[in-house]
Amino acid sequence: MEQRTTSEELAKRAQAFLFAEGGEMPHRKLASLLNCKESELRDVLKTLSERLNGSGIALIQTETAACLAVSEEASGIVQEAIKRELDRDIGEAGLETLSIVLYMGPSTRARIDYLRGVNSASTLRNLLARGLIERTENPEDAREYLYRPTVELLAHLGVRSAKELSNYDTIVPELAAFESGSEPFKTNNDGSDAV
User: Fold this and answer.
1) To the nearest 10°, the Cα dihedral for 109, 113, 119, 123?
2) 183: left (phi over 0), alpha (psi -120 to 50) or beta
3) 59 exposed, middle or buried (CB, 10 Å; 0-12, 13-18, 19+)?
4) Domains delineated in the chain
5) What is the distance between the alpha carbons of residues 153 and 157, in angstroms, rounded to a whole number?
6) Are strands 25-26 and 57-61 parallel, antiparallel or unpaired?
7) In which element (H, E) is residue 67 found?
8) How far out from the chain centre does Cα 155 lie?
9) Which residues, in sequence order, are bridge partners of residue 65?
10) What confidence tier does 143 reach under pLDDT thresholds 50, 70, 90?
11) Are strands 65-70 and 25-26 parallel, antiparallel or unpaired?
12) Radius of gyration, CA atoms only, the chain
């Protein structure tokens, strides 16, 4: 006989799914993931909301969706920290990452990490928070995201598309050659590097 999952256990699972989603999740999808009816989901979300009370995280709900967010009590200190972070220059890491996303087009974090040669997680978070890049689902692999430039970034750079960027026709083949492991630079007939 199958044991019934308690509302407390479902609340823990709901928290994990909402955390993993990283944004708004429709009630229908959450109920499906929890293997419960949408009518049961109300009690589950009420239990989760009570569990999170005073934790720094809050459950935000509409009629059709739910998400996790910073609680009202913790929002001031988080906003202050984010403001300090955003007031800083994006640095060389940010410029490298933006260049990859602009010149190579929508890219996964693994691709960005490979081209930069280092972990880019914090740099990507910083650029997302500044509204310079956006994260979308990867249609080829649901386990990862694609990072792409925002319209605001292109407008700030004064271009209508990335193809209007300076040296676009030169840089893209060099990055593609580097990524594929081939030699990106032309050589002279005598085998020396062309200048």
Assistant:
1) -60
2) beta
3) buried
4) 7-73 (1.10.10.10), 89-180 (1.10.10.10)
5) 6
6) unpaired
7) strand 65-70
8) 21
9) 26
10) confident
11) antiparallel
12) 22
Pick the closest to residue 98 from 185, 162, 145 (CA basis): 162
Dihedral over alpha carbons 98, 101, 104, 109 (to 10 degrees): 120
pTM for the whole thing? 0.52
What is each CA distance from 19 to 43, 134, 195, in whole angstroms? 19, 19, 51
Q: Phi first, then psi: what are they for 46, rounded to 5°?
A: -65, -45
Q: Give me the phi and psi of 83, to 5 degrees please.
A: -60, -45
SS3 sequence of 138-183: CCCCCCCEEEEECHHHHHHHCCCCHHHCCCHHHHHHHHHHHHHCCC
Which amino acid makes up residue 30? L
- What is the pLDDT averaged over residues 120-131? 91
Decide: 103 and 168 in contact? Cβ < 8 Å: yes
Kindly indicate the confidence band of residue 187, based on its pLDDT and cuts at 50, 70 and 90.
Answer: very low
Q: Indicate the angle between helix axes 121-129 and 91-104, nearest 10 degrees.
A: 80
